[in-house]
Amino acid sequence: MIKKEIQVKADLLGSNKAVAATIREKLSQRGILTLNLISSPGAGKTSLLESLASRIRPEHEMAVIEGDIETERDAERIRAQGIPAWQIKTGGACHLEAKMIGKLFPEIPSELDFLFIENVGNLVCPASFDLGEHIRCVLLSSPEGDDKPKKYPKVFTTSDCLLITKADLVPLLPFDIERAKKEALEINPALQTFVISSLTGSGLDEFVEFLKISLQNLRQKYA
Amino acid sequence: MIKKEIQVKADLLGSNKAVAATIREKLSQRGILTLNLISSPGAGKTSLLESLASRIRPEHEMAVIEGDIETERDAERIRAQGIPAWQIKTGGACHLEAKMIGKLFPEIPSELDFLFIENVGNLVCPASFDLGEHIRCVLLSSPEGDDKPKKYPKVFTTSDCLLITKADLVPLLPFDIERAKKEALEINPALQTFVISSLTGSGLDEFVEFLKISLQNLRQKYA
Hints:
By secondary structure, chain A is an alpha/beta fold. Chain A contains eight helices and seven strands. Chain A has one domain: P-loop containing nucleotide triphosphate hydrolases (Rossmann fold), CATH 3.40.50.300. A seven-stranded parallel β-sheet of chain A has the order 3-2-4-1-5-6-7, sandwiched between helices. In chain A, helix 1 runs parallel beside helix 4 (98-104).
């Protein structure tokens, strides 16, 4: 990269970080646990949110911010579950930025428990942009292969939890769950890992339990 | 984007385009048909190259340039097939650029027929960077879902061919091949489409035939 590019990138990341910190502080004060979901296209982010709805809503309120380059499709899928959803169309940009979340902030109801931000499908660029979330989750779907953590390390090192998705397909694929976990934990030993299938529901109760405990912890800290 | 960012991006794309044009001209004069393979992580780019090897090599010579953020894994898989392969590690960058190909140029043997460039796994950013290829192929794997062309349009509008991969998994998935093709052709009616499985070999003969005809056409044009 030439010097001018490096400077522009540093400025961009610096200003993003400042906006993200303000958003996180506001969300913490309101007691809204916020997650940033990052993965390749089609790893199952929207399907996860659809299948979390029935498990979260008896007790808690959730809402979703959808990031996509084009189309309202993902927000429509979420709204069909009766969940408030906002669609951000980036119009070409490969990731969400904190200022895009900041613009939506006035619309976010304050009685919320969980706010999920579904990033643009991209295992690379979103890793560099803090959105003000409390928990960053990277999703790795079994058809992508168990060799991805070391090939795309940044998103694994900056995440708090790893969801191995499409577990129902594992018996049909050359995918070794233990190898994938081991690779990811080698580069980030603090990762909480879950193996889930949004189709069969396996692993989802454990993940929801983790969300509820994280919510309690956030509220105790900011009480 | 602020004005300075837009200007830096325009400069970067402009200089990339010029380098790419020079590379393409040199490759054309040598009669080396060059392909740029773009897809999400784990859509099957390396597996495709492995399974093309035995179908191309009885008659023709091929070589591969591998682009990854980290690791030499993909190049090692290709070399294990006895095929020359160079690994470009981008060290964080989300796409290959023409100057990276240009640097390798002196090492590329001139008796080659096909040069495959496997881009970084990313359905977004590589679409903006011409690498000097003759044919750009976007791979969409069936587990990613048939709704991706309109959500990630740029790579589909800038590609010459679409390979729907992992066709063997289609019977197990909510993936409609005709819907995926229709979506892609609506945004780019000129796309040549192939439905393949590197595991079973289905569709590969048809794709190899397309490659051989494209090679003939290139050589006739530059004879």
